[in-house]
Design a protein that fits this description.
Layout (H helix, E strand, L loop, with lengths): L1 E10 L2 E11 L4 E5 L6 H8 L7 E6 L2 E2 L8 E4 L11 H11 L4 H14 L15 H13 L5 E5 L7 H16 L3 E5 L3 H7 L2 E6 L2 E7 H7 L4 E7 L2 H8 L3 E8 L5 E8 L5 H8 L4 E7 L4 H11 L6
Parallel strand pairs: 3-8, 3-9, 6-7, 7-8
Antiparallel strand pairs: 1-2, 1-4, 4-5, 9-10, 11-13, 11-14, 12-13
Helix pairs in contact: 2-3, 2-4
Protein backbone atom coordinates (compact mmCIF):
# COMPACT_ATOMS: atom_id res chain seq x y z
CA UNK A 1 0.00 0.00 0.00
CA UNK A 2 2.77 2.44 0.96
CA UNK A 3 6.30 2.18 -0.39
CA UNK A 4 9.26 4.38 0.56
CA UNK A 5 12.53 4.14 -1.34
CA UNK A 6 15.88 5.58 -0.15
CA UNK A 7 14.41 8.34 2.02
CA UNK A 8 16.93 10.80 3.46
CA UNK A 9 16.49 13.95 5.53
CA UNK A 10 19.00 16.27 7.19
CA UNK A 11 18.63 19.24 9.53
CA UNK A 12 21.41 21.84 9.39
CA UNK A 13 23.59 19.32 7.55
CA UNK A 14 23.05 16.75 10.31
CA UNK A 15 21.50 13.57 8.88
CA UNK A 16 18.29 12.44 10.63
CA UNK A 17 17.33 9.69 8.17
CA UNK A 18 19.73 8.02 5.74
CA UNK A 19 18.51 6.06 2.72
CA UNK A 20 15.69 4.19 4.46
CA UNK A 21 13.37 2.02 2.37
CA UNK A 22 10.27 0.18 3.58
CA UNK A 23 7.04 -1.40 2.37
CA UNK A 24 3.78 -1.22 4.30
CA UNK A 25 1.21 -3.80 3.22
CA UNK A 26 -2.56 -4.05 3.67
CA UNK A 27 -3.62 -6.36 6.48
CA UNK A 28 -0.27 -6.14 8.26
CA UNK A 29 1.09 -4.25 11.26
CA UNK A 30 4.64 -2.97 10.83
CA UNK A 31 6.52 -2.09 14.00
CA UNK A 32 8.98 0.80 13.84
CA UNK A 33 11.66 0.49 16.54
CA UNK A 34 14.60 2.58 17.59
CA UNK A 35 16.00 4.54 20.57
CA UNK A 36 15.25 8.21 21.12
CA UNK A 37 16.79 10.28 18.35
CA UNK A 38 16.97 7.34 15.93
CA UNK A 39 14.93 9.17 13.28
CA UNK A 40 11.54 7.48 13.80
CA UNK A 41 9.47 10.67 14.05
CA UNK A 42 11.24 12.24 11.07
CA UNK A 43 10.48 9.13 9.03
CA UNK A 44 6.81 9.13 10.05
CA UNK A 45 6.46 12.82 9.20
CA UNK A 46 7.89 12.19 5.77
CA UNK A 47 5.41 9.37 5.22
CA UNK A 48 2.65 11.86 6.08
CA UNK A 49 4.08 14.66 3.87
CA UNK A 50 4.39 16.89 6.93
CA UNK A 51 8.02 17.31 5.88
CA UNK A 52 9.48 16.60 2.45
CA UNK A 53 12.50 14.28 2.15
CA UNK A 54 15.75 15.65 0.76
CA UNK A 55 15.90 12.61 -1.50
CA UNK A 56 14.02 9.40 -2.15
CA UNK A 57 10.44 8.69 -3.12
CA UNK A 58 7.13 7.63 -1.54
CA UNK A 59 4.24 5.96 -3.36
CA UNK A 60 0.73 5.16 -2.18
CA UNK A 61 -1.04 2.38 -4.09
CA UNK A 62 1.73 2.55 -6.71
CA UNK A 63 1.24 6.29 -7.33
CA UNK A 64 3.51 9.15 -6.15
CA UNK A 65 2.27 10.35 -2.76
CA UNK A 66 0.38 13.66 -2.92
CA UNK A 67 -1.17 15.89 -0.28
CA UNK A 68 -4.71 14.77 -1.24
CA UNK A 69 -3.78 11.12 -0.68
CA UNK A 70 -2.91 11.85 2.95
CA UNK A 71 -6.66 12.23 3.60
CA UNK A 72 -6.74 8.43 3.47
CA UNK A 73 -4.20 8.27 6.32
CA UNK A 74 -4.78 8.36 10.05
CA UNK A 75 -1.78 9.87 11.86
CA UNK A 76 -1.35 9.79 15.62
CA UNK A 77 1.72 11.91 16.49
CA UNK A 78 3.78 11.38 19.61
CA UNK A 79 3.23 15.04 20.54
CA UNK A 80 -0.55 15.07 20.85
CA UNK A 81 -2.24 18.00 19.10
CA UNK A 82 -5.67 18.57 20.65
CA UNK A 83 -7.24 21.91 21.61
CA UNK A 84 -7.64 21.95 25.38
CA UNK A 85 -10.44 24.57 25.43
CA UNK A 86 -12.54 22.76 22.83
CA UNK A 87 -15.22 20.17 23.65
CA UNK A 88 -14.19 16.59 22.97
CA UNK A 89 -16.91 15.66 20.45
CA UNK A 90 -16.70 18.99 18.60
CA UNK A 91 -12.99 18.50 18.25
CA UNK A 92 -13.30 15.02 16.75
CA UNK A 93 -15.98 16.19 14.32
CA UNK A 94 -13.76 19.11 13.31
CA UNK A 95 -10.88 16.77 12.43
CA UNK A 96 -13.26 14.38 10.64
CA UNK A 97 -14.47 17.19 8.39
CA UNK A 98 -10.89 18.17 7.61
CA UNK A 99 -10.47 14.60 6.33
CA UNK A 100 -13.46 14.97 4.00
CA UNK A 101 -16.50 13.78 6.00
CA UNK A 102 -19.75 15.73 5.94
CA UNK A 103 -20.95 17.16 9.24
CA UNK A 104 -23.66 14.48 9.44
CA UNK A 105 -21.19 11.64 8.82
CA UNK A 106 -18.68 13.20 11.19
CA UNK A 107 -21.28 13.31 13.96
CA UNK A 108 -22.39 9.73 13.25
CA UNK A 109 -18.84 8.34 13.32
CA UNK A 110 -17.92 10.37 16.40
CA UNK A 111 -20.94 8.98 18.25
CA UNK A 112 -20.01 5.45 17.18
CA UNK A 113 -16.43 5.76 18.45
CA UNK A 114 -17.33 7.52 21.71
CA UNK A 115 -19.68 4.63 22.52
CA UNK A 116 -17.18 2.00 21.40
CA UNK A 117 -14.37 3.38 23.57
CA UNK A 118 -16.66 4.09 26.53
CA UNK A 119 -16.27 7.86 26.26
CA UNK A 120 -19.94 8.97 26.23
CA UNK A 121 -19.55 11.01 29.41
CA UNK A 122 -16.91 13.19 27.74
CA UNK A 123 -19.08 14.27 24.78
CA UNK A 124 -19.67 17.86 25.97
CA UNK A 125 -16.60 18.22 28.17
CA UNK A 126 -13.57 20.30 27.26
CA UNK A 127 -10.28 18.48 26.81
CA UNK A 128 -8.78 20.17 29.85
CA UNK A 129 -11.54 18.63 31.98
CA UNK A 130 -10.59 15.08 30.99
CA UNK A 131 -8.03 12.74 32.46
CA UNK A 132 -4.91 12.01 30.44
CA UNK A 133 -6.23 8.59 29.48
CA UNK A 134 -9.52 10.06 28.26
CA UNK A 135 -7.64 12.71 26.29
CA UNK A 136 -5.64 9.95 24.65
CA UNK A 137 -8.85 8.19 23.66
CA UNK A 138 -10.11 11.39 22.05
CA UNK A 139 -6.81 11.68 20.16
CA UNK A 140 -7.09 8.07 18.98
CA UNK A 141 -10.69 8.60 17.83
CA UNK A 142 -9.59 11.71 15.92
CA UNK A 143 -7.06 9.51 14.13
CA UNK A 144 -9.51 6.80 13.03
CA UNK A 145 -12.88 8.60 12.79
CA UNK A 146 -12.67 8.98 8.97
CA UNK A 147 -11.99 5.24 8.48
CA UNK A 148 -8.49 5.63 7.01
CA UNK A 149 -6.86 2.98 4.83
CA UNK A 150 -3.46 3.50 6.46
CA UNK A 151 -2.78 4.14 10.15
CA UNK A 152 0.51 5.69 11.24
CA UNK A 153 0.72 5.60 15.02
CA UNK A 154 3.55 7.11 17.06
CA UNK A 155 3.52 5.67 20.61
CA UNK A 156 -0.24 4.92 20.56
CA UNK A 157 -0.25 3.35 24.04
CA UNK A 158 1.35 6.31 25.80
CA UNK A 159 -0.76 7.52 28.74
CA UNK A 160 -3.01 4.45 28.86
CA UNK A 161 -3.50 2.12 31.80
CA UNK A 162 -3.40 -1.66 31.14
CA UNK A 163 -7.19 -1.85 30.64
CA UNK A 164 -7.15 0.81 27.95
CA UNK A 165 -4.03 -0.66 26.35
CA UNK A 166 -6.07 -3.84 25.86
CA UNK A 167 -8.93 -1.74 24.47
CA UNK A 168 -6.75 -0.04 21.86
CA UNK A 169 -4.98 -3.31 21.07
CA UNK A 170 -8.36 -4.87 20.30
CA UNK A 171 -9.13 -2.07 17.87
CA UNK A 172 -5.78 -2.39 16.11
CA UNK A 173 -6.34 -6.11 15.62
CA UNK A 174 -9.76 -5.40 14.12
CA UNK A 175 -8.25 -2.79 11.78
CA UNK A 176 -5.69 -5.36 10.66
CA UNK A 177 -8.38 -7.99 10.04
CA UNK A 178 -10.34 -5.48 7.95
CA UNK A 179 -7.35 -5.07 5.64
CA UNK A 180 -5.95 -1.76 6.83
CA UNK A 181 -2.21 -1.12 6.80
CA UNK A 182 -0.71 -0.04 10.12
CA UNK A 183 2.67 1.44 11.05
CA UNK A 184 3.23 1.37 14.80
CA UNK A 185 6.15 3.18 16.40
CA UNK A 186 6.65 2.19 20.04
CA UNK A 187 9.24 1.55 22.74
CA UNK A 188 7.24 -1.38 24.07
CA UNK A 189 8.94 -4.49 22.67
CA UNK A 190 6.25 -6.79 24.04
CA UNK A 191 3.61 -4.92 22.03
CA UNK A 192 5.70 -5.31 18.89
CA UNK A 193 6.15 -9.05 19.45
CA UNK A 194 2.45 -9.57 20.23
CA UNK A 195 0.94 -7.29 17.57
CA UNK A 196 3.31 -6.78 14.66
CA UNK A 197 3.90 -8.96 11.64
CA UNK A 198 7.01 -7.08 10.47
CA UNK A 199 9.50 -4.72 12.05
CA UNK A 200 11.81 -1.97 10.89
CA UNK A 201 14.60 -1.26 13.39
CA UNK A 202 16.50 1.99 12.90
CA UNK A 203 19.44 3.52 14.73
CA UNK A 204 21.16 6.84 14.03
CA UNK A 205 18.94 7.31 11.01
CA UNK A 206 19.84 4.03 9.36
CA UNK A 207 17.87 0.83 8.89
CA UNK A 208 19.49 -1.99 10.88
CA UNK A 209 16.97 -4.85 10.79
CA UNK A 210 13.98 -5.24 8.48
CA UNK A 211 11.49 -7.99 7.69
CA UNK A 212 9.04 -10.51 9.07
CA UNK A 213 9.43 -10.81 12.85
CA UNK A 214 9.33 -14.62 12.98
CA UNK A 215 11.87 -14.85 10.18
CA UNK A 216 14.17 -12.37 11.94
CA UNK A 217 13.96 -14.26 15.23
CA UNK A 218 14.90 -17.49 13.47
CA UNK A 219 17.71 -15.72 11.63
CA UNK A 220 19.23 -14.61 14.93
CA UNK A 221 18.75 -17.93 16.68
CA UNK A 222 20.98 -18.51 19.69
CA UNK A 223 21.11 -22.32 19.27
CA UNK A 224 19.37 -22.68 22.63
CA UNK A 225 16.50 -24.99 23.58
CA UNK A 226 13.91 -25.15 26.33
CA UNK A 227 13.25 -28.66 27.61
CA UNK A 228 10.79 -30.04 30.14
CA UNK A 229 11.40 -33.54 31.41
CA UNK A 230 10.46 -36.04 34.11
CA UNK A 231 13.40 -37.70 35.80
CA UNK A 232 16.60 -37.08 37.77
CA UNK A 233 18.65 -33.92 37.04
CA UNK A 234 21.87 -35.91 37.40
CA UNK A 235 20.74 -38.40 34.76
CA UNK A 236 19.81 -35.53 32.46
CA UNK A 237 23.18 -33.80 32.94
CA UNK A 238 25.17 -37.00 32.43
CA UNK A 239 23.31 -37.73 29.19
CA UNK A 240 24.26 -34.34 27.79
CA UNK A 241 28.00 -34.80 28.37
CA UNK A 242 29.72 -32.04 26.45
CA UNK A 243 26.96 -31.74 23.84
CA UNK A 244 25.34 -28.73 25.51
CA UNK A 245 25.64 -26.33 28.42
CA UNK A 246 22.82 -26.07 30.96
CA UNK A 247 21.99 -22.36 31.14
CA UNK A 248 19.18 -22.59 33.69
CA UNK A 249 17.18 -25.28 35.49
CA UNK A 250 14.13 -25.17 37.71
CA UNK A 251 11.73 -27.73 39.21
CA UNK A 252 8.09 -27.71 38.15
CA UNK A 253 5.09 -28.39 40.36
CA UNK A 254 4.69 -32.02 39.34
CA UNK A 255 6.97 -34.61 41.04
CA UNK A 256 10.35 -35.04 39.30
CA UNK A 257 9.37 -32.51 36.57
CA UNK A 258 11.99 -29.96 35.54
CA UNK A 259 12.37 -27.18 32.97
CA UNK A 260 15.85 -26.41 31.64
CA UNK A 261 17.36 -24.13 29.06
CA UNK A 262 20.43 -25.46 27.28
CA UNK A 263 22.85 -23.99 24.77
CA UNK A 264 24.13 -26.46 22.22
CA UNK A 265 27.79 -26.98 21.36
CA UNK A 266 28.63 -25.89 17.81
CA UNK A 267 28.88 -29.47 16.56
CA UNK A 268 25.41 -30.41 17.84
CA UNK A 269 21.87 -30.11 16.53
CA UNK A 270 18.57 -30.18 18.35
CA UNK A 271 17.88 -33.68 17.05
CA UNK A 272 21.26 -35.05 18.11
CA UNK A 273 20.87 -33.72 21.67
CA UNK A 274 17.30 -35.01 21.85
CA UNK A 275 18.59 -38.48 20.95
CA UNK A 276 21.20 -38.25 23.71
CA UNK A 277 18.79 -37.44 26.53
CA UNK A 278 15.74 -39.37 25.34
CA UNK A 279 16.84 -42.62 27.01
CA UNK A 280 17.89 -40.96 30.27
CA UNK A 281 14.71 -39.01 31.10
CA UNK A 282 11.13 -38.66 29.86
CA UNK A 283 10.92 -35.63 27.53
CA UNK A 284 7.57 -33.78 27.65
CA UNK A 285 8.58 -30.54 25.90
CA UNK A 286 11.43 -29.68 23.54
CA UNK A 287 11.53 -26.44 21.59
CA UNK A 288 14.12 -24.02 20.24
CA UNK A 289 14.37 -20.84 22.32
CA UNK A 290 14.24 -18.01 19.80
CA UNK A 291 15.46 -14.56 20.90
CA UNK A 292 12.82 -12.00 21.78
CA UNK A 293 12.43 -8.72 19.91
CA UNK A 294 13.79 -6.98 23.02
CA UNK A 295 16.97 -9.10 22.98
CA UNK A 296 17.55 -8.43 19.29
CA UNK A 297 16.87 -4.72 19.77
CA UNK A 298 19.19 -4.32 22.76
CA UNK A 299 22.03 -6.23 21.12
CA UNK A 300 21.75 -4.20 17.92
CA UNK A 301 21.63 -0.86 19.70
CA UNK A 302 24.39 -1.60 22.21
CA UNK A 303 26.84 -3.40 19.97
CA UNK A 304 25.88 -2.34 16.43
CA UNK A 305 26.32 -5.86 15.14
CA UNK A 306 24.09 -8.81 14.18
CA UNK A 307 22.38 -10.40 17.17
CA UNK A 308 24.15 -13.44 18.54
CA UNK A 309 23.07 -14.66 21.97
Amino acid sequence: MLCAVNLSKSYSDKPAVKNISLNVESGYITGLLGPNGAGKSTLLRMLNRIIIPDSGSITFKNKPLTHDMVKHFGYLPEERGLYRKMKAAEQVMFFAQLKGLTLADARKQTRFWFERLELDAAWNLKLEQLSKGMQQKVQFISTVVHNPELLILDEPFSGFDPVNVELITRELIQFKKSGKAIVLSTHNMENVEALCDCMEMIHKGQLMVSGNINTIRKQYTSNSYVIEYRGLPMAFANALWSAAEIVSQQPLHEPQMHRVTIKLAKSQTGRSVLNLINNAVEITYFKEALPTVREIFMNQIQHHKPFNA
